[in-house]
Amino acid sequence: MTTITTAAFAVPSIHFEVSFKEPQAHYAEIKMEISDFRNDYIDVKMPVWTPGSYLIREYARHVESVEACDAAGTHLTVQKTAKNTWRIHSKKAEKVTFSYRIYGFEVSVRTNFIDDSHAFLSPAATFMYVDGMLNLPAEVTVIPHANWSTISTGLESVAGKPNTFHAADFDILFDSPIEVGNQDVFTFEAAGVHHEIAMVGGGNYDKARLTADCAAIVEEATAIFGVNPNKRYVFIVHNYQSGGGGLEHLNSTVLGASRNGYQSERSYVGFLGLVAHEYFHLWHVKRLRPMELGPFNYDAENYTSALWIMEGFTAYYDNLLLRRCGFLSEGSYLQALTSDINAVENRPGSQIQSAAQASFDAWIKQYRPDENSVNTSVSYYNKGALLAMLLDVKILAATRGEKRLDDVLKAAYEQFYVSGKRGFEEQEFRALVEQTAGTSVADIFDAARAVGPLDYNSYLNAVGYELVDNNQGLELPELGFNTSVNDGRIVVTSVTRGTGAWDGGINVRDEILAIDGERLDANGRELNRLMQTASVGDVLNVLLARDGKIRELEITLAKDTKGSFRIMPLQNASAEQIELGKIWLSLN
What we know:
Elements: E1 13-19, E2 27-35, E3 42-45, E4 63-70, E5 75-76, E6 78-82, E7 85-88, E8 95-103, E9 113-114, E10 119-121, E11 129-130, E12 138-142, E13 150-153, E14 156-157, E15 164-167, H1 170-173, E16 178-181, E17 184-190, E18 193-200, H2 207-225, E19 232-240, E20 246-248, E21 252-258, H3 265-280, H4 307-325, H5 330-345, H6 355-360, H7 373-376, H8 380-398, H9 405-419, H10 426-437, H11 442-447, H12 457-460, E22 465-469, E23 477-478, E24 481-486, E25 489-495, H13 500-504, E26 511-515, E27 518-519, H14 525-533, E28 539-546, E29 549-556, E30 558-559, E31 565-569, H15 575-584
Parallel strand pairs: 1-12, 18-19, 19-21
Antiparallel strand pairs: 1-2, 2-8, 3-7, 3-11, 4-5, 4-8, 6-7, 9-10, 10-16, 12-15, 13-16, 14-15, 17-18, 20-21, 22-31, 23-30, 24-25, 26-27, 26-28, 28-29
């Protein structure tokens, strides 16, 4: 009779230890203990990107001092086989310890930052995984530097093991940032969920006001979906002299803020908008998602043309949630929508790239803007938010105020995430919209794949509003380039497609010296005076320096085609239109 030992059934396991011997030099030390693989070799890999931030970031470039040993301390050969892959020749060892250091000194919500005051660990930039074993659970033990006392993360604590956390698999681990330091932590309860706010870097925030306002956002967002899937949620807020940006995670988020901006009403409401945006993502992206956005391939791009739905709809709801909470007046909310319209319709790139194309090309365009981006691309955030607005008001009009985009998202969450336990195909999502609205929405989904202006008034009029262009009928000249002042020099930073500057050959990095024989001043007074007296069709003689050589160009001023848009109540609106408008913009 064959005897089968318990060891034969040993389940492979992963345990990480993170320590900080030289935080002032921006380093963390990582030990990865790999048990019960017993292979001739083990390939370990570092992700090349992090979910929610669609750019190949090559995190492996910050890895150094790689080595491995078995349980007896015997050195094992490590061979790098690809840009983000190391092969450990483990010789069937029962336990392998793979050690490496990571350098982190980039301020962002998606990259590691370590100094003598704290450490922020973006897991995809910190932890490696065994090739083909993303489904394995993992434990992480954090050994804070002697001067640090607090750890903030959405990971679950392991009972009986100090500073040790558990992830059911590596998708969860890579979605759970870790903050280590002396952050100010305070809590609140909302929607039946325990929330923690970890404030890093100080600031002039009012804890009572901030927790009350964040709780209101949580309740409003939860009301849309009818359920909050978390028991615990963590806000990690990095406060800088000047900061911004955020990144969503399954049960946490990382936000950037200006530490002294909380007492400015405009800055504070802007921060609440960021809170609303990232919190909305815990349903819309982290759970309700396109098929392409999970499970992830951490080795390469994960393409989707649906970011206009995911990020765009979220960008629509962040301000809408602020309106429903009462943080934005009706006028301020409409102004926020108008800002998106101005940003999209006055961008030449909106004539070149569709929202769906922008989504697909996020990996090469969104996070790599250059001086010509305004002429070649559009933001799937702004354009997607406007498409969401049109969809919302169309559903309201089609159902006479009985349903709106909220109902679509709740139904999609139930159908695809809760019941289907999968992502959606775009045509499935569109079908669900049409089922809810009782009408075709081909016009809006087609517009997401088209370039050119959106027909706002055919939708806004139905809810008692209209878009007005204050520049309509005006004959205003446009110079066609933007400048900045560098060491007293007036330097071109961008040139707008279709303008006199574009046609006349003005280049980015040209230094503008004089126009029509008048030397320009660094404060822009002379240029402003010139443009106030100029007319469409005027020919300007521009003296400039390019790469150290003096040149003269003739620029013909074209008509400024940019709009100056406002959303206003529709004159002579019917009672039904007015009522639908009230529902659209109502306070809950």
